[in-house]
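Fig. S4 source data, part A: sequence.
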Amino acid sequence: MKEETHITSDKWVMELLSSMPDTAFIYDSSKRLIDIINPKDNLLLGVDIEKVKGTKISELGEIDPAFADAARIIEEHIHKTAQTKEVYTFNYQVTKDKTYYAQARTVPFQKDQVICFAHDETPEREKEKEITRLKDFFQSMVDHLPVGLLVKDIDNEFRFEFFNHQLLDFFGDSVVFKLGQNELELGGPRAEIYYKEDEAVVARGEPVMYERVSNDENGNPFRWEVTTKSCFTNSDGRRYLMAVTVETTEIRKREFELEKTKNALALALEAGNISAWNYDIEKETYFSLYGETLSGNGITQQELQKIIHPDDVKKHNQMMKDILSGKFNKRKFIFRFKQGDSYQWLETYVNSIKEDGKLMQVVGTERNITDEVLKQQELINAKSNLELAFSSADILPWEFDTRANLFSSSNKEAAESQNMSLNEYLDYLHPDDQQAFRTSYENLINGKKKSMSVEVRLAFPGQDLRWYEINATASKRNRDGNIIRIIGIRKDITATKTKDELIELREKAEKSNRMKTAFLANMSHEIRTPLNAIVGFSQLVMQTDDKDEQESYFDIIETNNDLLLQLISDILDLSKIEAGELDFIYSGFEVAGIFNNMEKVYGARVKAGVELISELPDRLCLIYSDKNRITQVVSNFVSNAIKFTSSGSIRMGYTYIDNGLRFFVKDTGKGIEEDNLPTVFDRFSKFDSFIQGNGLGLSISQSIVENLGGQIGVESTLGEGSEFWFTLPCEPVML
């Protein structure tokens, strides 16, 4: 009966141990392992259970050296429990592919046995490390915010409570900050002014913004900043004053440069006898902007129709229709307007100004070119007569005998009169134009073309390199129909080519000026938007004790901090791109690691109902390139996909292509309209004004990919989703 009771009791104990979440190791009096109950992989780490049963704990280190230290600790506590019959709790760790942590306790069991209960604490330890890392990260983030941050204790005579490193960078040695002291105690040329400002802000009870200018020894301004001061009350009832300082030196300098540009533009308009006007879309009325225009103090569309030449009315109406409908952003026409008793020719440029894709206003210029038109007409008549004279006199004609392979010319001044061969003629051509001439010639000889027309650069002996238009046709064939003689004419077109190059340079200069103006306007708006949100919601945080509201405000502040940091980072990258100094650091790395990091960073950011999926080849891939820049481009793609995808999936990965890799991020989001696809990678391109972002990320991504020698692109269907991709030339090593 006692034996049956003992067996039943042992069975009940084993069932109880099996139901516990911990792994139980049962040792006998000689410290041999009798049994393992509830074995856990994160505790055994691949050790064969059957292999260790019946062995002493001290032998565990011989079976697996990774357990040597842990075995020594466990053996020590088993011995103590066996001697004292007391329970001991302790910790140990095992390092294999990574470090695993466990909490254990030794408990006396039956007469001379000991149970060691072990619990895997690795997840908890990793969480603690992550919390510590995040705490350090947020502290570092505050220290490296692109704004100076200062907190003073109002109830302690405005003594310094906190300041970040950025504030020290702003002021350098010109201002001293020391915790526990105020500005009056530390002294300084503006100490009393700052102290009175603090008192005024507290008395006012709302944020106050101060704009400051610092001058050098000669009294010239060299630094500008904007400081916003606001008060808040902590949960313990103490009152604090927070000052946020943003340096605006570069913005002010650019404003001065913009003013200089405006003045220079005014001088240029005046020197070119150009006037400017704008068109009020709502009033359908033209007004003068600069100089004397037909608009005067205002002229309606109907009134303007009365002074346009009847033959130009339809053309003028079509021009305004194209601009107002958005079909064209800019147009150039020449119209005749009646002034006095005669019509004057006016050269008109018109341009549309848009914000977020919406037409805001129409501006244009006009220049009286009546004298030029009359002279041009005279030149056309003269040119016609001159061309007739040239044709009659056979100016610079040439012939080519295909059988003798020789050029000839009746004009002794022509280089072709020197009886040169085709190869000799090609030697005088610019190397880049030789193939074009040869192809055009062969097409004529082979019958693919009836005539030959090509523009090339030639430098005959004793002459400079010049552009020529060469035209030719077959003049004689043999009985088999093969061409045996070609006649042609050579025309100098250097002046035309030079003019085209000058026009191209002027257009590039005008475009550069417009881009600089747009850049300043965009950056002023983009910087103020998150900054105002940071300041405003920082105040709201301190005005409420509701933890849910505070968390909501903290989320908004954190989001705008990220936006501001991203904007500054994009501006720095953009500046490096403009200066041609974008740095690239090459190294060898495994490609899949980029997407593993993406899952960790963006996994929690996707909206509910959206799945972030990595689609990677089965084999690992090593390449030699700039990992950080590639990560930057993929991150931009994923971040954009998250913004515009509310359901479905976001798939990211890479595939092998000839001589490299193709990276992609494909989503099931809202997609992009077909008309917007050509400008996706332009700076400040935003097709949804309600989505946060500055429109620089994709432009920077394009520059990075092109610098790496690859190509970038997008395919998208409105309402179905988009796929952004880029190729990377490299020599992948597959493992």
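Fig. S4 source data, part B ends here. Confidence is low (pLDDT under 50) at residues 1-9.
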